[in-house]
Amino acid sequence: xxxxxxxxxxxxxxxxVLPAASAWAQGxxxxxNGSDSDSSGYLQxxxxxxxxNFAVNGSSGPGYWGFGLDAAAGVTFSERVRWDVVxxxxxxxxxxxxxxxxxxxxxxxxxxxGNFSRTSKLHxxxxxxxxxxxxxxxxEVEWGFAWGAGAGLEYQVTSTLALGPxxxxxxxxxxxxxxxxxxLNTHQFTLSIVWSND
Length: 198
Prior knowledge:
Layout: H1 2-15, H2 17-26, E1 40-56, E2 59-60, E3 64-76, E4 81-94, E5 101-114, E6 122-137, E7 140-156, E8 161-174, E9 182-196
Antiparallel strand pairs: 1-2, 1-3, 1-9, 3-4, 4-5, 5-6, 6-7, 7-8, 8-9
């Protein structure tokens, strides 16, 4: 049942990519009065590092640093609201004393609230995300429900390009067969680059 729910969330997030692709192709969405609205499509890429730890029965273990990246395709609806229709996250980290490779893959959708006006050079924002996560350790794979929250600051370099730091917290709720529930917590710090259509 859990795997079906996680799969359904993943399929729903993938289906939602269509509005973003449509907005990107059209450039803008016309309003009822015939004028152009502030809606536009964008692509985002973030590169950086993440610190991941495991929490079992309310007790958190040590954190492990590793490589992290994220990418998104979405729509800016106004100067205040941005929607990552599809947001992908990836973290890879090593546990000291273990030769096993650990990785985490997130498939989520996110909403950001902030100042996204292109007439402003600085764009502070906060947001939250929802979706699913896949944790891989050696040959073992677990899927689970995931959510996140974050904040960032972008600098408008050109009319179509912005960049800046972003912090994102992501939590995945894993239920391994025959074992206790695990919260997989990741604190990710990235440099985010956003391309918007004019």
